[in-house]
Amino acid sequence: MGEIIYNPYRPWIMFDQDGTLNQWRWIDVSIVATPGYFRTVEPHKQVIGAAKILNMLGNNVGTYGAVWQDGHSQNDKDWWMDRNVIFIDRGRRFYVPCGTEKASFFYELIGRPITRADILVDDCSDVLRSWESYGGTAVKVRTPENGSKGTWRGPSFYVDAPADEIAMYLLLVQRMAVKETAMAVSM
Q1: 91 with 63: CB under 8 angstroms?
Q2: Per-residue pLDDT, 1
Q3: Which position among 30, 36, 59, 140 has the lowest Cβ density within 10 Å, counted as fewest Cβ atoms?
Q4: Residue 119 · residue 12 · CB < 8 Å
Q5: Does residue 13 form part of some domain?
Q6: CA triplet 179, 182, 186: central angle to 5 degrees?
Q7: Alpha carbons 80 and 74: distance in angstroms, whole number
Q8: What is the extent of the structural domain holding 146?
Q9: CATH code of the domain covering residue 137
């Protein structure tokens, strides 16, 4: 099978790395900032499987990860991705400097407005709300480590759901978002 060609102007389905594609551990930030830490995190295999299915279906699938400015965390995250999410090449891995808003960074990166067809899958409700404020569609991954306060009211799925069900759910959410947009424009 040939390489999947992606088009930055087509809608994206973006997966956060920490807490979404892999397990987030609530530990001291000094440990998280240690070189080599990101090489040790456990993959969320069902979410990775869903991303792989979406990629095989020809969707624009990419990843997001926050990194420190010293460069070691990006190297560690690429090392991890090269072993666990090999179907997403480095050209579709986006690294945001720690403290930078993901939505504004992505908006600048792709050179076009974020649309309702652009999906962000993340474990952090604040990041998801920001994505929506830029016009995108946000989907929360619920893990044992998050989702306990009930502040997220939008689309969500559980990290241990079957990969094919997660993939089909994300496509359904995307289709519904596009349909809602088309209906609003035609009114």
Answers
A1: no
A2: 37
A3: 30
A4: yes
A5: no
A6: 140
A7: 10
A8: 18-186
A9: 3.40.50
Give 30's contacts (C-beta < 8 A, 6+ positions apart): none
Determine, yes or no, domain membership for 106: yes
Alpha-carbon gap, residue 156 to 59, rounded angstroms? 20
Domain presence at residue 5: no
The three-class DSSP label of residue 87 is coil
pLDDT of residue 2: 42
CA distance 166 to 163: 5
Whether the Cβ atoms of residue 119 and residue 171 lie closer than 8 Å to each other: no
What is the per-residue pLDDT for 147? 66
C-alpha distances (whole Å) from 164 to each of 95, 120, 123 are 27, 18, 19
What are the mean pLDDT values of the chain's consecutive 10-residue runs (187 residues total)?
A: 55 93 73 73 95 96 86 86 94 88 84 91 94 96 80 93 98 90 56
Q: Residue 67: what residue type?
A: V
**In a domain? residue 94:** yes
